[in-house]
UniProtKB/TrEMBL annotation:
Domain of life: Bacteria
InterPro entries linked to this entry: MetalPrtase_cat_dom_sf_prd, YbeY, YbeY_CS
Lipid metabolism listed as a keyword: no
A GO BP annotation: rRNA processing
Keywords recorded for this protein, A-Z: Endonuclease, Hydrolase, Metal-binding, Nuclease, Zinc
Keyword Hydrolase listed: yes
Family label: Belongs to the endoribonuclease YbeY family.
Name of the protein in its database record: rRNA maturation RNase YbeY
Cofactor: Zn(2+)
GO molecular function, one term: endonuclease activity
């Protein structure tokens, strides 16, 4: 949904502000896991 995507982009941006990077496939995978973690925490 739009709300889910907005939340994911917000979390993604916050992770960048905290110093996380996604320039390589490994870093992208790690960031995706962090996004999923925070999405889960915010929903439950």
């Amino acid at each position: 949904s739009f709300e889910d995507e907005l939340l994911r982009v917000t979390i993604h941006s916050a992770l960048h502000l905290m110093g996380y990077d996604d320039e390589t496939s490994e870093l992208r995978a790690a960031m995706s896991l962090r996004e999923d973690h925070y999405l889960y925490r915010l929903r439950h």
